[in-house]
Write a structure and sequence with these properties.
With 634 residues, this protein is α+β, with helices and mostly antiparallel strands. The protein folds into 3 domains: 7-399, Glycosyltransferase (Alpha/alpha barrel); 403-498, Immunoglobulin-like (Sandwich); 504-615, no CATH class. The strands form 6 sheets. Strands 7, 18, 19, 20, 22, 23, 24 and 25 form an 8-stranded antiparallel beta sheet that branches. Strand 18 (504-507) and strand 19 (516-520) form a beta hairpin. The longest helix is centred in the first third of the chain and has 19 residues, at 130-148. The relative contact order is 0.10.
């Protein structure tokens, strides 16, 4: 087996502050605590699966309970909300009770289980993603078992895995790959490998390895699956592979897990290659992944940037961080979290988007994909149950550990408490308004003097970073790396970090030619008509056409800001629904132009744009796999 270079600290107590904490509270109160009762079919669809008349199901209806459970557990790890913990205990127990004696835990009738088709649904039947639904539930159950050490829940997940093995392991005439929808239905490779790591039951590893072999299966009309391992080792990017839909990231996660349990370096090489191919070709300016729900090899494409796609991307990035201990991977996770994840949620926590476009408007998923609503589950759709996971996953990357090396990735008002050993506790409190400004005070307080290494992330965009310990400047701080401090820490030690928040830019190409994205630290800025009521007719060309997810092609007629001459002044918003950040500069006509943080753009229903006309913007200095600070988009 191989051990990750860094791991989440499962026992760490993390108390976040600022806008992230407010949204976590809102999500808990307005969604996680009410969703099961407001949408009882989330569980009840399993109870009456064999009793006609059958429910009107979606191919992926079986995923909702698993996605909800995973999201809620991740959030619980941050909030330790006793109400949520109690509700989840009841939810998990009820879910486990709905498992059939053979291990089946899906919503389909007996003759349609773990197949690709149910003849009972609709006039012509319906294709099913049944093993995808089982995968999502297994992941949720595994998380709960890890959180609570509940052996009965782990056994429930194992019985699901046993059923998959019984049906498909070693069966050449009945392969899992033949169920179709292979980006989805091959995802159990990830859960099976995790279960093998936890239980060491050989059939789980055997089934996982068989699924990897099936990645490369060929049918009469061509590839049946994504062939992720061989294609990646041959140097192909995800968008060049046979199955580039976003769901492919979940079977690809199985490659990382197999690397941990087998030590086969090809799994690591393939996984890292695919991750880099997404960063370089398909990660949008707001940190979101996918265009029209898949990789297309163009980060300027105007297709939907679906919530589920970005959540899967962050999950993949966390595994990449564990695998590489590369600080720029943490930079990527922060970018996606502070822009796309915050931006995909209503500040009330009551709803999330289906797509969070770079330019356009915010629509609740319950409106944008209302076709997924059913009797008994009016608010359930693939994104509504998945979006809270984006915030909850902060627990996986905020602070990590390898032996006596603590790796601090998350910046923002917060308190961390880490148990380092018997009668040894370390507390780290961050005093800051980051990401509004770049000044952070880290109050480091061990319960007794102790020698450990504290590794601080230095973002790649902070070209000039000042770091001091107890008012003594530290030398050798470099962008795009961790700065390691090994010493005997004592109560009262204070680290001060000042990050370079000078605006930086990304020049657009293709569909975004002559347009620029502006960043302040990790925050993408956006032009929102709400803050620019004075602008002339040209600026008001932000009109929604027939397609509600796109703005017009009539971009502003000329540059509105000169990057060489404009000073972006920070404003204090006095009105309601305050943005996190609001800056202003003068356009070439001398008018004031205001830019807000992407996450709050469009919050009140206005239109916004994050690709905007700016002249004299330098090329964005951005890392690539060969050189952490080499621009890959010139």
């Amino acid at each position: 087996m191989n051990n990750p270079l860094v791991n989440p600290i499962s026992s760490a107590e993390i108390e976040l502050g600022g806008p992230v904490a407010k949204l976590l509270t809102a999500l808990t109160d307005q969604w996680l605590l009410v969703a099961p009762m407001a949408n009882p079919a989330m569980l009840e669809m399993f109870a009456d699966r064999d009793h006609p008349p059958y429910r009107n199901l979606l191919p992926w209806s079986g995923e909702f309970a698993g996605k909800y459970l995973t999201s809620a557990i991740k959030v619980l790890r941050l909030t330790r909300d006793e109400r949520l913990e109690s509700l989840l205990g009841d939810f998990v127990n009820r879910l486990a009770q709905l498992q059939d004696v053979d291990g089946y835990l899906g919503p389909w009738p007996n003759d349609s289980r773990l197949t690709n088709f149910s003849p009972h649904h609709g006039t012509r039947g319906i294709q099913t993603w049944d093993t995808w639904g089982h995968y999502q539930i297994m992941i949720g159950l595994i998380l709960w078992a890890e959180e609570t050490r509940d052996s009965k829940i782990l056994e429930c997940a194992c019985r699901m895995a046993d059923l998959i093995c019984q049906k498909y392991l070693g069966k050449k005439r009945m392969r899992l790959v033949d169920t179709g929808s292979t980006e989805m239905n091959l995802a159990p490779v990830h859960a099976l490998a995790k279960l093998y790591r936890m239980t060491e039951i050989p059939r789980y590893l055997d089934m996982a390895l068989q699924i990897v072999d099936e990645f490369g299966a060929i049918g009469p009309e061509g590839p049946l699956a994504g062939d992720y391992l061989r294609q990646a080792l041959a140097g192909k990017a995800l968008f060049q592979m046979p199955k580039p839909r976003w769901e492919s990231l979940h079977p690809i996660l199985g490659l990382a897990e197999l690397y941990w349990v087998t030590g086969d370096d090809n799994y690591r090489k393939a996984f890292e290659h695919i991750w880099w191919s997404i960063v370089e070709n398909d990660r949008h300016n707001n940190g979101g992944f996918s265009s029209g729900e898949q990789a297309v090899g163009n980060p300027y494409a105007e297709g939907t940037i679906e919530t589920c796609c970005t959540i899967a991307w962050i999950a993949m990035s966390i595994e990449m961080l564990r695998m590489t201990r590369n600080s720029v991977v943490a930079d990527e996770i922060e970018l996606s979290t502070l822009n796309s994840v915050l931006g995909m949620h209503s500040p009330t926590g009551r709803w999330a988007t289906f797509t969070t476009p770079s330019d356009g408007a915010r629509f609740a998923s319950s409106h944008a994909i209302v076709f997924q609503a059913r009797s008994g589950s009016p608010e359930l759709n693939c994104c509504s149950v998945n979006s809270p996971r984006g915030l909850g996953m902060i627990s996986d990357w905020a602070i990590m550990q390898h032996e006596d090396d603590l790796v601090l990735n998350y910046f923002g008002p917060s308190d961390f408490k880490i148990e380092l050993g018997e009668d040894l506790t370390l507390k780290i409190r961050q005093e800051t308004d980051y990401p509004v400004s770049g000044r952070i005070l880290f109050h480091v307080s061990p319960s007794r003097p102790t020698e450990i290494t504290l590794s601080i992330r230095v973002p790649y965009w902070s070209e000039k970073t000042y770091l001091s310990l107890n008012q003594q400047a530290l030398e050798g701080v470099r962008a795009g790396e961790y700065f390691q401090i090994r010493r005997e820490w004592k109560i009262g030690d204070i680290l001060e970090m000042n990050l370079d928040m000078t605006p930086h830019y990304w020049r657009g190409e293709k569909q975004c030619n002559r347009l620029v994205s502006v960043y302040k630290g990790p925050i993408l800025l956006a032009y929102d008509q709400r803050y620019n009521p004075h602008t002339d007719k040209a600026h008001r060309s932000l009109i929604i056409p027939d397609d509600p997810f796109k703005v017009t092609k009539e971009y502003l007629p000329g540059p509105i800001v000169d990057a060489d001459q404009s000073m972006f002044n920070l404003l204090d918003w006095k009105g309601t629904f305050a943005p996190l950040i609001l800056l202003e500069a003068k356009d070439l006509k001398g008018q004031i132009v205001r830019l807000c943080d992407f996450a709050s753009a469009g919050m009140t229903g206005t239109l916004y744009r994050s690709w905007i006309p700016i002249i004299n913007a330098p090329p964005r200095q951005r890392f690539s796999r060969s050189n952490p600070l080499r621009s890959v988009r010139k």
